[in-house]
């Protein structure tokens, strides 16, 4: 984001930094807190987490003096603390959007239902919302984005998250007039559709990760969700349900992403996919019908063509989120949003044989995983979106392992915000 450092410097010099509220002080949240504390022009003035110790630990690790951190349970109290230069620790997530002094709210909860409710309420309170919650975005992002436009605020995904990093390459290539053939990300572990927290536990402990989160990467759900967000932002679709998941290195990408009849492995252009062997990077495959452009790309050592790869070898997850905060506040623009509407749908698939009467659990757990389809195909199947799965969803029918679970196969015994919002979105779109 060219020049953002200088604009943030001006905010710092003005004594009016962007006041940020963070909801969720887990691994991602704590990283963001520390990153922002070292930046100019913004401040994580309020952090909410159900476990207050997480908040205090996050501020401590960021180098915030303990005597400047005050606990609050009311918005007026939080507002007074922030306007006097202090930091608020709270277990009340609603203070993030109810506190007048806050400019931008960041959702780092990772819980689809909670994220949907937080985003909706933040928008209603006239504040910008940055989502580190792709699961909520792919489920109800279309209606949240429209609501934000109507209310004159910004709804956005996060820089550093893989969808945001892919979007950075897409916007660059599209602005230059390249024909963007494919968009994708690396996957850093083999696909294991049966992975669950027990299977992932030892590796998770070694990496200091949550076993459920790691399992959601191993079973492919997170990859499907992330490329679903890219699909909804760009209009690109999976070449087949679940995408291909080819294996290769960066130098292999231009040949992999050619049509089969041209010696490649895809059936059409304008697709999203993932590749084992290029993690943690993201990529865009581009071409041009202009001979001089191809000649220049070859001269610049971008390959022999006709396809070329734009590759970003890193994504810094929540450490880059502050750039989306700044873009939303200063430029009033998203980093990534569902501009194209409902293009993809990550549907719910049975991880094992499921029986009528059983309850589902959640993403990265024992009963289900997600698989990316084109939205219209998923709709024709009456498929259940993965973001609607929670522990009060009960199976009405037996569903075999590997089969798509439909709305007709389940009943939700407890109304949730995201189910209601999804119903409104389905009516609207």
From TrEMBL:
It holds the Pfam family DRL_cat. Transmembrane segments: none annotated. It comes from the Bacteria. Residues 24-146 form the Aspartate/homoserine dehydrogenase NAD-binding domain. Residues 160-321 form the Oxidoreductase DRL-like catalytic domain. GO terms for molecular function: NADP binding; oxidoreductase activity. SUPFAM superfamilies: NAD(P)-binding Rossmann-fold domains (SSF51735). InterPro entries: Asp/hSer_DH_NAD-bd (IPR005106), DRL_cat (IPR048423), NAD(P)-bd_dom_sf (IPR036291). This is NAD(P)-dependent oxidoreductase. It comes from Paenalkalicoccus suaedae.
């Amino acid at each position: 984001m060219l020049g953002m450092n200088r604009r943030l410097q001006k905010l710092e010099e003005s004594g009016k930094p962007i006041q940020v509220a963070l909801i969720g002080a887990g691994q991602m949240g704590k990283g963001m807190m520390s990153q922002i504390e070292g930046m100019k022009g913004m401040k994580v003035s309020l952090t909410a987490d159900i476990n207050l110790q997480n908040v205090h630990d996050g501020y401590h690790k960021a180098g915030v003096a303990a005597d400047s951190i005050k606990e609050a349970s009311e918005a007026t109290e939080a507002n007074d603390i922030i306007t006097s230069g202090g930091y608020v620790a709270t277990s009340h997530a609603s203070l993030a959007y109810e506190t007048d002094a806050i400019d931008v709210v960041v959702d780092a909860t990772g819980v689809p239902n909670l994220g949907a409710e937080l985003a909706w309420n933040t928008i209603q309170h006239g504040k910008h919302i940055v989502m580190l919650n792709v699961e909520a975005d792919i489920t109800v992002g279309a209606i949240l984005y429209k609501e934000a436009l109507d209310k004159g605020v910004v709804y956005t995904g996060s820089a550093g998250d893989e969808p945001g990093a892919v979007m950075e390459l897409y916007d660059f290539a599209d602005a230059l007039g390249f024909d963007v053939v494919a968009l994708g990300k690396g996957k850093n572990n083999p696909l294991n559709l049966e992975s669950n927290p027990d299977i992932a536990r030892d590796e998770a402990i070694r990496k200091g990760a949550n076993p459920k989160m790691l399992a959601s990467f191993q079973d492919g759900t997170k990859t499907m969700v992330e490329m679903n967000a890219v699909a909804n932002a760009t209009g690109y679709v999976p070449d087949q349900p679940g995408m291909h998941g080819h294996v290769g290195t960066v130098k292999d990408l231009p040949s992999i992403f050619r049509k089969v009849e041209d010696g490649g492995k895809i059936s059409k252009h304008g697709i999203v996919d993932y590749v084992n062997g290029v993690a943690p990077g993201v990529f865009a495959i581009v071409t041009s019908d202009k001979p001089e452009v191809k000649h220049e790309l070859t001269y610049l050592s971008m390959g022999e063509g006709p396809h070329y790869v734009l590759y970003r070898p890193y994504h810094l997850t929540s450490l880059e989120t502050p750039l989306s905060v700044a873009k939303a506040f200063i430029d009033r623009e998203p980093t990534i949003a569902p501009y194209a509407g409902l293009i993809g749908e990550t549907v719910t698939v049975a991880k094992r044989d499921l029986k009528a009467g059983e309850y589902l659990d959640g993403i990265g757990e024992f009963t289900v995983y997600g698989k990316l389809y084109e939205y219209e195909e998923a709709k024709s199947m009456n498929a259940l979106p993965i973001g609607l799965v929670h522990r009060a969803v009960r199976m009405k029918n037996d569903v075999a392992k590997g089969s798509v679970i439909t709305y007709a196969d389940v009943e939700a015994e407890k109304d949730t915000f995201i189910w209601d919002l999804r119903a409104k979105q389905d009516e609207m779109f």
